[in-house]
Amino acid sequence: MEEYNRQQYAAQNIIIDFLSGKFENEAGLLKEAAIKYLDFRKRAEVFQEKYFFETCNTKCYENKMCACCTKDGIITYFADVALNGMGSGVKEIEGLLEILENPPGTSKCVYLGENGCTWRLKPIVCEMFLCNYAMNKVFEENPDAKLQWEALELERKDYTWPDKQVLFDDVEAIFIGLGYNAEIMYMHNSPGLLMVKKKAGL
Ligand code: SF4
Ligand code: SF4
Question: Which pTM does this prediction carry?
Fold first, then answer.
């Protein structure tokens, strides 16, 4: 199994174990902690649909030339995996494991299926990616959309940028506290992010 897929497989497996029912209290805590974030994700999704669907559809979806979902190019945080798992359940995550065991062998992200992304709640990096072409086109026509996008980008940091206590760090901490460990727990093992936390006195 390729390195990227192996790391993903290990993280997805943790979620299956977590969802087996032995950590119901922690699962409840996690759900509660994620409420605001899920609301943010909904608004980001609605924004993308409203302003970018047409542009992306014409440029990429119709001719299947999308440059968004590149192979091994997506940084997936452990919290992405955990929060997707919480909203998906064991059967769906087992489906992702099957994909990782038998990758399609294309030049695209391993998770990209016939009908788009096979995650229920795709990684934050994917949700918040817009190529320059799409941004220039849409924001030129609609400056107000640009302001909304900038506000969403700022809000994203409230969950993912650890210069303060953030959900993505908290999620990892919950799992580490239960004895789990994954290479994609970047909030706890990336030198860059650890430096951000250190500078913030965390
Ligand atoms: S953001 Fe850019 S690359 Fe991605 S689907 Fe839209 S137009 Fe295509
Ligand atoms: S949106 Fe889904 S398929 Fe596309 S890069 Fe992200 S995880 Fe992969």
Answer: 0.94
